[in-house]
Amino acid sequence: MAMNNDQQSGFSWKWVIVAVVLIGVTAAWFLLPAKEWLDSFSSWIKELGPLGWLLFGLVYIVGTIVLAPGSVFSIAAGLTFGAWGYPLVVVSATIGAAIAFIIARHLARDRVRKKVDNSPKFAAIDNAVSEDGWKIVALMRLSPAVPFNLQNYFFGVTDVSFWHYVAATFVGILPGTALYVYLGAIGSAAGGDSGGPAKWVFFGVGLLATIVVVVLVTRKAKAKLDDYGVDDEKNEDSA
């Protein structure tokens, strides 16, 4: 019974997070001059041509390294580049994650290790990584148990190999990235006058389908991580 309550609680919180993001984006769109800001930013980036893509990618990479919220950049990519923002974000996030991993492994290993040694949650993940390396990395990327940018540094002090880490990260971030970029792309398309109600129905159905897929994948990943003993709620309770 307790386990069912934990699962229901985790599931509820995921929906709360999704709802907060949607409400926040909508509120910002209507209450702030967000459209003007984003239009100006988008126009400036687009005017730069290929240099704009490179600049945005570099900003995303640096943001990943300094622990900035990647969801904001992912939504901005959708607003600016539409569907093409998806591969740009996936590649940039993977590069940023790889650099953070290298920093943790070779430049700040002792400092990162001290921060994670006293955490039961990270201890459980560390043990799981020792057994099934890249599989745990991929599952963690699909699960919201630990923020993405923090994972990058944590995995740097585990036994997982660099290239296994990079490959698992690339694959693991695909579903979540699709959701955020799609949110941005909807905001970009909303500025157009063509399409009428049919356009909103199309985008609404697409967004709902994307959310359903992401939630289902996340639940599967969490269930699998629970099998490895990586349960964020239980580990926090034991701390």
UniProtKB/TrEMBL annotation:
The entry's keywords: Cell membrane, Membrane, Transmembrane, Transmembrane helix
Pfam families, per database record: VTT_dom
Protein name (record): TVP38/TMEM64 family membrane protein
UniProt record similarity statement: Belongs to the TVP38/TMEM64 family.
Keyword Transmembrane helix: yes
UniProt key word Transferase: no
CC terms in the record's Gene Ontology section: plasma membrane
Stretches that traverse the bilayer: 12-32, 53-77, 83-104, 162-186, 198-217
Location in the cell: Cell membrane
Domain VTT: from-to ranges: 69-185
Membrane topology: Multi-pass membrane protein
Family matches, as InterPro entries: TMEM64 (IPR015414), VTT_dom (IPR032816)
Organism: Granulosicoccus antarcticus IMCC3135
